[in-house]
Design goal:
Distance between the termini: 36 Å
CATH architecture: 3-Layer(aba) Sandwich
Pfam family, one: Macro
Protein name: Macro domain-containing protein
Helix content: 25-40%
Order of helices and strands: HEEHHEEHEHEHH
InterPro entries: Macro_dom (IPR002589), Macro_dom-like (IPR043472)
Organism: Rhizopogon vesiculosus
CATH superfamily: Leucine Aminopeptidase, subunit E, domain 1
Length: about 230
């Protein structure tokens, strides 16, 4: 039985503020909302080991597996995952960029896999179009999770691997789409951003940007200071 990572073992934004991994910012992009600090998590590790209702696969348009996270998810889930994906898109018809589809998780600890196709970064392509497509990946995946009664979902860094989307811009999009969605929806209890093992620079980008989208309120700042003084 592969290692399983329980949700309770993955730190929330609130806990990351409490241990000073995250630092409050003077000019956040969104107002403080305390309830969100316990609904958003950051984790560096293997997304295939996380026991949640749904993990998101940064898939290619065929949904048949590939390299990176996509290949790791297909390998961990077993051959039944590829078969389920073929039934979603039989023949040569590809999954559109920005769209998402859901399958069972099969041998994964996660109950479901949400497959979404991110944009392939190119300096010659329209940046606004690519940003819209990447935003749609997160938005559509979140909505699909809610429609399938999922309470927890884990995201990789969509399009930032072999698709070469710049990590800073991709992180802004991921955080903004998640903040807007959680502001308007109470159905999802937990959203986890998963950094691949060894990509410390990517984790640092998330740690720098999360406070702009999920900031502390004045009461939270006082509580965080008290927690730090007791450590």
């Amino acid at each position: 039985m592969p290692n399983r990572i329980q949700l309770r073992d993955i730190r929330t934004v609130s806990q990351l503020f409490g241990n000073a991994t995250l630092r409050d910012v003077e000019t956040p992009f969104y107002p403080p909302k305390r309830s969100l600090l316990s609904r958003v998590h950051l984790y560096q590790g293997n997304i295939t080991q996380i026991e949640v209702d749904a993990i998101v696969n940064a898939a290619n348009s065929t949904l048949q597996g590939g390299g990176g996270v996509d290949g790791a998810i297909h390998m961990a889930a077993g051959p039944a995952l590829a078969k389920a994906c073929r039934e979603l898109y039989p023949g040569p018809r590809p999954c559109p960029t920005g769209d998402a589809k859901i399958t069972p998780g099969f041998q994964l600890p996660a109950k479901h896999v949400i497959h979404t196709v991110g944009p392939r970064w190119s300096s010659s392509s329209d940046a606004e179009t690519m940003a819209s497509q990447l935003g749609s990946c997160y938005r559509t995946s979140l909505q699909l999770a809610v429609e399938n009664k999922c309470k927890s979902i884990a995201f990789p860094l969509i399009s930032t691997g072999i698709y070469s989307y710049p990590i800073d811009e991709a992180t802004h999009i991921a955080l903004e789409e998640t903040r807007v969605f959680l502001d308007e929806n109470d159905e999802l209890d937990h959203v986890i951003f998963v950094i691949f093992t060894g990509r410390d620079d990517d984790q640092e980008v998330y740690e720098q940007l999360i406070p702009y989208y999920f900031p502390l309120g004045s009461e939270d700042i006082s509580k965080s200071a008290e927690n730090l003084s007791s450590v």
